[in-house]
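ingest -> validate -> predict -> emit
validate: passed (alphabet ok, no gaps, 282 aa)
predict: started
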Amino acid sequence: MNKISSAFLKHKRGYLLLIFLTVSLIMLGISSRGFLNRPKEVGVSFFSYIDAGISAVTKWFSNTWNSISELKRVREELTSVQKKLLEYERISRDIVELRKENEQLREQLKLSRTSIYTQIPAEVIGHDPTIPFSSILINKGLKDGVKREMPVIAYQSGLQGLVGKVILVNRHSAIVLPLFDPSSYVAGRIQKNRYGGLLKGQGAASPLLIMEYVKKNAMKSTGYGDDVVTSGLGGVYPKGIHIGRIRSISSKSYETSMVLEVEPIIDFARIEYVFVIKKAAK
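emit:
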């Protein structure tokens, strides 16, 4: 007996585990009778869970794909909107620029109507690189009535000023020789005291014109800022067109005339439109 008790105590854990397993198997058998008696319901339930899982996964993938497609569509729409916005901004800038140009042209046309000469409006479209000192290219030519030797004027800040004369004409365009070209000569007159002289350009050397052969007697009545206009002599330029203002006066004791530097009234760097003088209005 003692030996049995001793063996039980020695293998106590093993016996307890065996008893626990036996009881568990019995309980499982009892509880699983209903399970074994309803295999159809169990199968349906099992496959229902599988179907639900597959549906959930399919729905997740579908939603993800739809989200990606929606994101791509939104991105494409955003790109399209950005392109349209840039185009609208460009159009807006062009409209503003056109309005400024139209206002400027209307103002110049209004001023030109007060002139006693018939004028042909033209736009400056470039400079002829084949002729020195940046001769001015305009968009009017023979078909518009433009001819060689016709004088050209412009309007800036409400003032009319001489630009030069036409030296070459094509059917649809013409080249204007500006005042500052060294080969340009204009008969001028000091507006205040009526003394005359001959103006010529200095080309790239200076933006100022040189007025020579002015009688030294004009020294006392000539001042800085006095206006110089065309005299009408020579028959090319009509009388009374503004050329510029006197900026310097010099004279040598042994000469009978003095030399003036005249700043053109027209800023040639800002010329956009000019008017070719065709003939005196009737």
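The mean pLDDT is 78.
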